[in-house]
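User: I need a structural model of N-acetylmannosamine kinase from Loigolactobacillus rennini for a docking pre-check later this week. Nothing fancy, just the predicted structure tokens so I can convert them on my end. Input:
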Amino acid sequence: MAIGLIDIGGTTIKFGCWIKGQLITDQAVATPANLTAFYQILTAKITAMKQQYGITGVSISSPGAVNQQTGIIGSFSAVPYIHNFDILSEFKQRFQLPVAIENDANCAALAEAADGAAKGLANVVLLAVGTGVGGAIILNGKIHHGSHLLGGEFGFMLHENNRTVSTMGTLVNAAKRYNQRFKPEQPLTGKQLYAAAQTGNSAAKKELQVFFTTLAKAIFNIQYCIDPNCFVISGGVSANPALLPDLQTAIKQVTKSVKIAPLTPKICIAHYQAEANLRGAAVNYSQQFHAN
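Assistant: Understood. Predicted structure tokens for N-acetylmannosamine kinase:
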């Protein structure tokens, strides 16, 4: 069995094929500016995969709130023309194949739980830390979408002073706060803020501590609500080798402050990065069409 895979992103669209448990990647293309060009590109790619690999289905990773029952991608994203109509039926008609769609963060979580950092674990939370904080929840091996497709929207959680986890729990926003306060000639990026803190910049250390404390408290709260086996941290920040030990220290401090808490949450770094959404799309297709 061969499945065509598509990962829709705001800048590029990635393609691949899943054959006998192996991912074959294809050349990515720039995300087009309109729906007509979008359909043309995807249809041409799928037609080529039919001819080359004999694919029998298509699975798509997409931004937005994917409703698998209605085929509608709700909410909004950097690809605005894919939202708020039955795009699943459009894909089926154009590809003439079975099609599955899932949210991109959910796909990444499925990939990690299948054979990545959380391999073999039934209950997993993925935290995607970038410009904001998103994520996914896997319970008993399946994505937990929630009643309103809000499962995994951890960035909306309130932190101190009614500020959200997305506002306080990213390096991007930590750097913004530092730049607004100190107005350096060359504004720092999140990566540069981290480096400055490591070399002794006390103000940078303070902002970094806010970032870690926010994430640690969010992880602690999720642990004692959902009780996953582990948390998988993904996003650009996860490439920093110092992140894991620093976040573990912050989580231990938060857990220690709650004397009756019996468990310290377990965290790990995502194994898959660029390929995660394609791999997870393959898992989602299997769950939808071959569960029985």
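Before docking, keep this in mind: Residues 2-104+274-289 form a domain with the Nucleotidyltransferase; domain 5 fold (CATH 3.30.420.40).
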